Amino acid sequence: MNNIISAIDKVLKISLIVMLSAIILAVLWQVLSRYLLQSPSSGSEEIARFLLIWISLLGGVYSYRMKMHLGLDVLVKKMPPKQEWASQILCHLLVLAFSMSVLVVGGFNLVLLTFNPVQISAALGIHMGYVYMVLPLSGILMSFSALNELLTTWQQRVPTTEVN
Question: What sign does the CA torsion over 23, 25, 27, 30 have?
């Protein structure tokens, strides 16, 4: 299981680096073509927009995996260990429920909706279903990560102290 998770993490990391490099190049080309060549590129703005969507959703998965996501844990850190453990379990369950229902199910429905009838992007002429495919993909990855975190947290169960 750890081998699969580390492989997914590596692929995510490399993919995000490639996409971030591509979005920088696309925006740079857009600026150069607009101001230096006086002929703005029609496709670079759309490429940057689509890459931003992919980077945002896959970056969310990666940050959740690396425990770098935004979180307010002021209240949780003041709880007794047993309640802190229970709140972590609840949070991972909520992430799992959201990613399964909204990202996976809703994302697949959106992808199917854009393939029939076919929606085509204006400048690049690609199917919008391919752009929106990141929703179920990130949902599956987020669900897998949430299940892993849930199992890990569950195994670190706080022992109950008995009162004599």
Answer: negative
Helix, strand or coil, per DSSP, at residue 6: helix
| Per-residue confidence (pLDDT) for residue 158, from 0 to 100 | 67
Dist CA 12 CA 14 (whole Å): 6
Query: Could you give the CA distance from residue 109 to residue 133 in angstroms, rounded to a whole number?
Result: 10
pTM for the model stands at 0.86
Under a CB-based contact definition with an 8 Å cutoff, are residues 103 and 142 in contact? yes
Helix, strand, or coil here: 73? coil
Residue of 55, 140, 62, 131 whose CA lies nearest to 105: 140
The CA dihedral of 157, 70, 17, 133, to the nearest 10 degrees, is 80
Q: Residue 103: is its pLDDT beyond 90?
A: yes
Scan for tokens 């429920």, then name that residue.
97
Alpha-carbon distance of 120 to 126, in angstroms, equals: 5
Longest dimension (CA), the chain: 82
Residue matched to tokens 């990855």 = 141
Please provide the distance, in angstroms rounded to a whole number, between the alpha carbons at the two ends of the chain.
41
